User: Fold MEDS: MEthanogen/methylotroph, DcmR Sensory domain from Micromonospora echinofusca.
Amino acid sequence: MSSRARRGAPGGHLCWSYDDPEALADQTERHLAASLAAGERFWYVTPRPSDLAAERLRALPGFTDAERRGAAAVVPLMSTYSPDHVVDPVAQVAAYATATDEALAAGHTGLRVVAEATELVRTPAQLDVFTRYEHLIDRYMRTGPFKAVCAYHRPKLGDRTVTELACMHPQSNVDDLLFRLYAVAPEDGHAALAGELDMSNHELFRTALDRADLHPVDGELVLSAANLRFLDHRALSLLAEYAHRRGATAVLRTPRSATARLVGLLHLPAIRVEVTS
Assistant:
């Protein structure tokens, strides 16, 4: 895993882009081992239950016993997600919440999933709803004992699609990903921003905000920017426009006092900066 992936915020939600099926199989085995050690239930969700990762899991010592105990399983993609390959974000989060509750009821400490989801994001319509789902499930992970690795085959999807997916995760192995927008615990606000926002990713930032679909509370959208290293004036303007459309003030919590000065110079009443220590 790259240094960028390790720097992601905690929460167990990883976007894993891979070129070689061997790399996915290695990642799946690592998460199976971590899941069993933590007492979780583990699912490998795949459109091809006989793929390389599944075959390697079945060949592992102890996997058959884990299957028998309900601690591990290879699960067909379409039994977990929509059979028409277009995900309903709210319904899908509810399905995983139910599966997590069932894992807890069976005596496990939670549910961990590695999902090979390439087939669910092949078209623009699929990608739009699935990125919305990614943010919703990220919110659920802040309160529920659920972890997920969302695996995407980069040669099939292309770099742009992978980037649109990766930026909605707190953790990623995509080395050239400049920024991330991800969920936080309810007491910490609505979402977090990390990385760098500059002229190279304004449109992606606008799209990510729209897909996150943040809902104001008491007229405010609270964003943690503790790990946001840089944002330019246009990114601030996009954030102000987003908050204004929702009849809210964006509260940007950052340790960088220069951000407050820039907001003042730009006269952006829809943004309030809270400088943190």
